[in-house]
Amino acid sequence: MRRMRSVKVVATLGPASDTYDMIRKLSEAGADVFRLNMSHGSQDDIREKHQIIRDVERDTGRPIGILADLQGPKLRCGVFAKGEETLVEGAPFRFDLDDAPGDANRVCLPHPEIFAALAPGEILLVNDGKMRLRVTDCGEDFANCVVEVGGVISNRKGVNVPDVLLPLAALSDKDISDLEFVCDLGVDWLALSFVQRPEDVLEAKELVKGRAAIISKIEKPAAVKSFSDILKVTDGVMVARGDLGVELPVQDVPPIQKRLVRACRKAGKPVIVATQMMESMIEAPIPTRAEVSDVATAIYEGADAVMLSAESAAGQYPVEAVTTMNNVAESVESDPTYRAIIEASRTPSRATVADAITLAARDVAETTEIRAICCFTHSGHTAMLAARERPSVPIIALTPLVPTARRMTLIWGLHCVLTNEVSRFKMAVVSAARAARNAGFSEEKDKIVVTAGIPFNTPGSTNILRVAPVQEKLIFEGETD
After folding, report:
1. Does residue 454 carry a pLDDT above 90?
2. Is 445 tagged catalytic?
3. What backbone phi and psi angles, to 5 degrees, belong to 332?
4. In this structure, what is the dihedral angle of CA atoms 176, 180, 182, 187, given to the nearest 10 degrees?
5. What's the pLDDT score for residue 354?
6. What's the CATH number for 353-476?
7. Is residue 481 pLDDT above 60, yes or no?
8. How far is CA 16 from the centre of its chain?
9. pLDDT value at position 480?
10. End-to-end alpha-carbon separation of the chain, Å?
């Protein structure tokens, strides 16, 4: 099941994709990582999907990554006596802490943290930004507003406060419970919602205790402003464009996406571009041309992964959605313009031995007849550095650790292979040559680049590079180690 592309595909599971047969079809169609949305379904449902994914992994013989996406705090209004009301442009409307059913003049907003942070002139958005209200007067338990964009407001609609850093933790009580559950279950990545500041990520890391890697979802203006500090402490990033497009002017989202992807590439940390990538495929077997262009743009930018949400979770054509995304990726990456853009957007490496080794591996591979770069890694760090360079040849990431192999399935360009522990560099070269042949990356007449660390089985010790023949009998000629 070698992929003919470097970008990875993340597919969300849901009612349309919760059986063994469907999840296997999605994997075979091109899904590298499966997303479990903790906003929907019980923990028992999540446990069942997790087990099915592991069953598919066992039966296909290919590592599969699992990303659990925490719900995060949800800011919602209360209920209305009539179920809904119509807000008219220019009319006054009040949010308060009174839990009595609302009417055309007011409704409960059971979040005192919002009132504590508001000031006159601030904006409140309702129902994914479809309604817009401006605060005229506020206190610790109320906000008087004027309706700037009207519409129908109904029970428990979401409320966004785009211009305010809210004094809310990124982890609700439900999130903390779900975090412990999925970490004990054995997920590989944990997506953190409602990130506003680096402290939100550090709080989650303390609870995770290394059991999973953290993906910070950038979905709020505050996170964009603090992005450089968030990037320093997170393990990866998700550009959650849906919420960004609600809280920011829509025209600002594309340049933000480009800046975030570029920053993640420079830092050598994976970045997922997500939300509404092929939204029309929820109900149609083919996407719009604009959606195809949107996916292609993320791939041209060098994103590690592109993600399907409702398209694969609740849509009528989940397999077609994954297949289409796979086909778009293959087409884009075969375009000569793609390589030119990727090479033009590379950033200088940092000054460490591991950086120098991976940079040299790329240079050797791209200036000689090399078929693949093979990285031995325990933590995944070496392979991620190799991916950071975005080489034009495949990267084979070899590891004896199952959790590391699964985690690396999200990283651009990595073909993950489980191998036995090795104690000598000669055997590492033999294992790399076999993996390259078995996966169809090379033939016996070809050569590969092998990187590893001496002493072996020590994370972060990458310090050796060798150009090696794929043919085993040639590997041993002249060897003395």
Report:
1. no
2. no
3. -60, -45
4. 110
5. 84
6. 3.40.1380.20
7. no
8. 21
9. 45
10. 34
Mean pLDDT of 436-462: 83
The answer to whether residues 74 and 170 touch, using CB atoms and an 8 Å cutoff, is no
Q: How confident is the model at residue 1 (pLDDT cuts 50, 70, 90)?
A: low
What value does the mean pLDDT of the chain take?
A: 93
So what's the pLDDT on residue 349? 67
Domain residue extents for the chain: 8-72+170-334, 84-160, 353-476
Does residue 241 have an active-site annotation? no
What tokens appear for 140 in the block?
Answer: 């610790």
Q: How far apart are the C-alpha atoms of 222 and 43, rounded to whole Å?
A: 31
For 116, half-sphere exposure in the C-beta direction (CA atoms, 13 angstrom radius) is 8
Question: Closest by alpha carbon to 181, among 66, 61, 271?
Answer: 66
**Residue 472: pLDDT band with limits 50, 70, 90:** low
CATH of domain 8-72+170-334: 3.20.20.60
Residue 109 pLDDT more than 80? yes
Q: Active-site residue among 3, 8, 24, 35?
A: 35
Active-site residue, selected from the candidate residues 275, 324, 358, 462: 275
pLDDT (tens digit per residue) in 387-419: 999 999 999 999 999 999 999 999 999 999 999
Find the mean pLDDT for residues 57-62. Answer: 96
Strand positions, DSSP E, 49-188: 65-69, 84-87, 92-96, 106-108, 123-126, 131-139, 142-149, 151-154, 159-160
Tell me if residue 2 is catalytic: no
Residues 246 and 288 sit within 8 Å (Cβ to Cβ) = no
CATH number among 3.90.550.10, 3.30.70.940, 2.170.270.10, 2.40.33.10, domain 84-160? 2.40.33.10
Contacts of 56 (CB under 8 A, 6+ apart): 20, 23, 24, 27, 64
- The first and second tokens of residue 320, run together, are 């077609």
Buried/exposed 307-338: b ≥16 CB within 10 Å, e otherwise = bbbbbbbbbebbbbbbbbbbebbbebbeeeeb
**Residue 262: CA count within 13 A, CB half-sphere:** 14
Q: Which two tokens stand for residue 321?
A: 């959605």
Which of 242-251, 287-296, 319-328 shows the lowest mean pLDDT across its residues?
242-251
Task: Point out the catalytic residue in the list 49, 157, 217, 390.
Answer: 217
| Residue type at position 25 | K
**388 carries an active-site annotation:** no
Looking at residues 283-288, what average pLDDT do you find? 97
Q: Which element (helix H / strand E) includes 232?
A: helix 227-233
Identified catalytic residue from 47, 76, 174, 262: 76
Q: Tell me the angle at which helices 289-300 and 253-267 cross, rounded to the nearest 10 degrees.
A: 30
Q: What is the pLDDT of residue 116?
A: 93
State the pTM of this model.
0.93
